[in-house]
Amino acid sequence: MLKNFWYACYHAAELGERPAKLRMLGHDFVLFRDRAGRAVCLDDRCPHRGASLAGGWVAGGCVVCPYHGWRFDPAGACTSIPANRGDARIPRKANVRAYPTEERYGWIWVFVGDLPEAERPPIPPLPEYGDRRWRALHGSFLWNAHYTRVVENGMDIAHAPFVHARTFGNPERPQVDEYAIEHHPWGASASVELVAPPPGGLWSLVLPRERPPVKTRTGFYMPSVTRLDLDLGRMKMVIFNSNVPIDEEHTLTLWIMLRDFFKGAWADGNARARTLQIFEEDQPIVESERPHAVPMDMSDEVHVKSDALPLVFRKLRRECLRERGWGLEWSAERTGGEAPDEAPGEAG
Ligand code: FES
Ligand SMILES: [Fe+2]
What we know:
By secondary structure, the protein is an alpha+beta fold. 14% of the residues lie in helices and 30% in strands. The chain has helices spanning 147-155, 160-163, 268-288, 308-323, and strands at 5-11, 20-24, 27-33, 39-43, 57-59, 62-64, 71-72, 78-80, 98-99, 101-104, 107-112, 135-143, 181-184, 187-194, 214-221, 225-231, 236-247, 250-259.
């Protein structure tokens, strides 16, 4: 797993009065809101006796540990130790690590790493979000799979006729036209035309039975955001996923589905069901892939022309791990107040 990136890890609307536990990158964090309503992210381990701060509560913009009531401010500094007499000093090591946060697209993003602000890779763009021409819908999907397999699935073009034959894939047309890779900072995308099967359900009211090719654009941003654009002529949709690595074997996809048609709330249920059906079609396949993580050595799996985009992802990931040394490892043991060790590694 990689450090030095922003991870969208929580639906902002779900972070309320109480602190929330967040398991991400094989590590426990606590999220809460400060007095101004800004999201705060700290390590979820009290430096006193290691209790989970997420089991506590928020008071005066600080999180309060449920064991002995120590308080930690948004910077992670301890501001109160109730058992101490008034004249006792707060130990210097009585603090927890704090992580930068941003709220964007209805998600809370957390930066995990050690780069100064000016050098951090940016949060990926999603200009359609907040634009009145689009209706946005949020959801989550949990995978028993390594995030690299989920990310590659999100940009894989050739599987649609097989895995999604019941939704948008066309088993009669499995060939993938040669496509050009468009590189952008920290990612890449590709556009292809897919021949869709006849529309079903609600969509059959709008789309003709003989459909023009679906202009499809698929892409990714390091380390774990994927974006799929489908242009069906009269209808356009975008599925934007933050595939959050929970640990080496679990991934939580936070998704936003944007559509420029049927924009009333009445169609949300249908849009949600269609989006989840696509994930459910992918799920058994993605969870079956071995090894869990995509191999570091390109020659460990066989590639064909239609795999060009996932190969860009593999190369960027390898560059982050090997050349930049951005592999993330948390030390199993740590003493109060010290930042976790982050040693370069290839656990990826
Ligand atoms: S363990 Fe948190 S205050 Fe004691
Ligand atoms: Fe898929």
